[in-house]
Amino acid sequence: MALLSVGPSIQYPKADCLIDVVFLFDESSAVSDALFNKTLRTVDATVNNLDVKEMGVNVGVGCYADTFRQIFQMDYFYSKTTIKGEIDGMKRQPNVGQANFQNALNRTCRVMFSSRAGGRLKAVNYLVVISPLGVTSVTDAELDAVVKYCKSRSVRIISITEGSSSEISNTIAYDSTYQFNLGDENTVAASVSTLIQDNAGCKEVIDRLAKWLETIIFGSIALITMLMCLLCFLQNRYVNRMKAAQEKYPEPEKKT
């Protein structure tokens, strides 16, 4: 007996949306304490908007001046509260030199997204570069080579700069929609977190889940309705047969 098919076929959505995010920002001598603290608040606000968990969004943080400094890698913390606490308590290193941006970008793409640093094979990779004053100390050829390498590692770079976007920002950003100004940290954080989750397919996962649930609900309603109709049909058929039997074989009258 063939099974009754109710509603469209169901495609089950993914259980989670895996995203690996690394924040890289400038702590060189060119950045004032006020701008550095604003950068930290921007990172903190962005993390607060992300779905941080072991099988969701994983976060790593690094910064740079004349050398690259890893603060923590993606498999260190899976708690949003813990990550925000680490960021809020972060102090910049004293007596640092000028920014070596090319080296920092190269090191981040090579190290921070590797499996040894918590990178996941099936995750979508985002590198959020926050450079408050822009970068002017690298040649186009050097930077192009590093950006090309990052792309080969499937790393999408989001560029956040103070004021108008620099040529460096145009070069490193995944595309024009991946460029932001370091204005109000909450506004920037909302835009960046939305970009990360929507472009990684998380919105599609949620939409598929909603459609899947809708299909289940309406399919269940349709099935229940059909079963009730079948029950009514069988009940009416039973009643009609009983009436026909009574008419054909009436009960004999009892003798008094």
UniProtKB/TrEMBL annotation:
InterPro entries recorded: ECM_Assembly_Org (IPR050525), VWF_A (IPR002035), vWFA_dom_sf (IPR036465)
Residues annotated as domain VWFA: 20-209
Entry's transmembrane regions: 212-234
Pfam families hit by this protein: VWA (PF00092)
PROSITE patterns: VWFA (PS50234)
Keyword Transmembrane: yes
Keyword annotations: Membrane, Transmembrane, Transmembrane helix
PANTHER family reported in the protein's UniProt record: COLLAGEN ALPHA (PTHR24020)
UniProt protein name: ITGAL
Source organism of the structure: Mytilus coruscus (Sea mussel)
Lineage: Eukaryota, Metazoa, Spiralia, Lophotrochozoa, Mollusca
